[in-house]
Amino acid sequence: MKFIHILVLFISVLINQVLSLNILGVFPYQGKSHFFVFVPYLQELANRGHNLTVISYFPQKTPIQNYHDISLAGKAEIYEDVFTIERSYWTIIQLGFFLMRAGTDNCVTLLEDDNVQNLWKSKAKFDVVLVEAFNSECALGLAHVLGAPVVGLTSHVLMPWHYEVYGVQYNPAYVSNLFLEGGTKPTLYQRIERTFFHNYFNYLYKFTTRRNNEKALAQYFDNVPPLEELARNVKFMLLYTNFVLSGPGLYPPNVREVGGYHVAKPKELPKDLKKFIDESEHGVIYISFGSMLRAASMPKDKLEAIIGAVSQLPQRIVWKWEEKTLPGNPKNIYISNWLPQNDILAHPNVVAFYSHCGMLGSTEAIHHGVPVIGMPIAGDQPSNAAAVEESGLGVHINFQDVTKELLLEKFKIVLNPEFRRKVKDLSRVWHDRPQSAMDSAIYWTEFAARTSNYSFRTPASSVPLYQYRSWDIVAVLGGILFAILYSLKLTISLLTKSSTPQIKRKHKTK
Ligand SMILES: *[C@@H]1O[C@H](CO)[C@@H](O)[C@H](O)[C@H]1NC(C)=O
Ligand SMILES: *[C@@H]1O[C@H](CO)[C@@H](O)[C@H](O)[C@H]1NC(C)=O
Q1: What is the tally of structural domains in the chain?
Q2: Cα(108) to centroid(ligand 2), Å
Q3: Shared domain check, 145 and 106
Q4: Ligand 1 in contact with 169 (CB < 6 A)?
Q5: Residues 150 and 244 in one domain
Q6: Ligand 1: which atom is nearest the Cα of residue 51?
Q7: Which residues span the membrane (predicted)?
Q8: Quick check: is 2 in a domain?
Q9: Residue 53: CB within 6 Å of ligand 1?
Q10: Which atom of ligand 1 has the smallest separation from the CA of 119?
Q11: Which residue, 431, 450, 480, sits at the end of a domain?
């Protein structure tokens, strides 16, 4: 037995040595909630013997082996909470401007950095470049200069400008727009709404960020191909979703769903919190709106509605809340400004999660099988909340509609034992995979490096739009049909013209 262990260890060390890749990670966006999804994956790549160089705003606090930082920290303000609480078309339009400006600035900051410049000046060789695919394609230019294949990463569903370049069909009839409600069963109004915003974000991106990024790259390099072309050539896209939660999407083989890898093994809870949850007779409801609904920004009537509802429930409440006290000091509520969310959701006494439906929280909830009340505020939360409801993980509530009565109604639904049993079963389906999300993400990364001379992009991403939509076929067939009908009409009128006088003549001769 021992010998076999040593042999296995020896072989795995050997394999690691043989396959050890030199990997560059480029994370030019300074959003904290984005980067922290990727951390476990990056650490695991290093752990498996690959040599990582990571450009980001978040250098490791304690150095780990094989993981080298190129830190951009301090070069831009870190975004923790970029959204306002109110939601309207205007805030979505503004979000467009925000994304474009950040995407433009991030590129300039990235290319200006001396350590980043050293990479191309020293002609560093990488087997694969990991690029966050979010609001900029600047890093694709860098990867091109370094001559390495690219693996794209997201911490969310596809952005509107990803569909065309990866050849993923976009159809407002069943494809969610991440910023909007409606899920996969939109009304006619919602389809018009998402068509408008899909085009708004796409054209804004094409004509601002993409062009600005190309200009920034042109300052340093002579012959970088158009970024749209480089985006089409991304080898693999690792999408942070999974069909069990986000619904079955139609993705080409080089767009892989790897959602779930950030969820860590639960750790022991802090003593007092553990006691509070352990000793709950009817279970615990966990409330967190991330950093979104800060105490100071919560409208008073909504806060009163929430407190009013939860203090009527027999369950204990654990609430991520930044202030020392809650109005009224309800005694069944435990508040803290920092809470180990994943460890709480893993506790068997936690029976529901009242959440703003960030991708991370929703993923942790399905991982641990905890029913969700989803109250989306901004960003990709509306489409996540729709997915939560459609998958059966929970129910959806509009922030504007929140009242004590409505909340109690929603809690009644998710606290029903039958509902919880179904969510546990959904969680079982979530875990039923040929390989873990982490193994899958790492496999496709290594695969991209091993097969860099091959392309697996769908032909759908290469054909021009008029062919993709068959507009030319419609035009040709329409033209032929028109010609046939027109000549038919001509013939008929010729026949009738030539026959009418005869009839008249006949009449005359009578
Ligand atoms: C690993 O990456 C570091 C930092 O980029 C680099 O200095 C080193 O040469 C690399 N090691 C190997 C074996 O490629
Ligand atoms: C991939 O292509 C490059 C350039 O054409 C070539 O040098 C290399 O040997 C190829 N790799 C494999 C594994 O065939």
Answers
A1: 3
A2: 33
A3: yes
A4: no
A5: yes
A6: 1
A7: 473-496
A8: no
A9: yes
A10: 5
A11: 431
Question: What does the pLDDT look like over 198-228, one tens digit per residue?
Answer: 999 999 999 999 999 999 999 999 999 999 9
- What is the extent of the structural domain holding 481? 471-502
Which whole number is the average pLDDT over 315-341? 89
Ligand 1 atom with minimal separation from the 52 CA: 2
482 burial (CB, 10 Å; 0-12 / 13-18 / 19+) is exposed
Which backbone phi and psi does 159 adopt, to 5 degrees? Answer: -80, 160
* Sign of torsion over alpha carbons 112, 117, 120, 126: negative
pLDDT tens-digit readout, 104-126: 999 999 999 999 999 999 999 99
> Does residue 5 fall inside a structural domain?
no
- Beta carbon of 22 within 6 Å of any ligand 1 atom: yes
CA distances (Å), origin 438, targets 12, 49, 80, 156, 361: 18, 15, 25, 16, 17
CB 21 within 8 A of CB 53: no
Mean per-residue pLDDT, 493-500: 80
Ligand nearest to the CA of 52: 1
Average pLDDT score, the chain:
91
pLDDT tens profile 153-192: 999 999 999 999 999 989 999 999 999 999 999 999 999 9
* pLDDT score, position 497: 82
Residues 200, 93: one domain? yes
Residue-level length of the chain: 510
Give the predicted TM-score (pTM) of the model. 0.89
Give the ligand at the shortest distance from the Cα of 22. Answer: 1
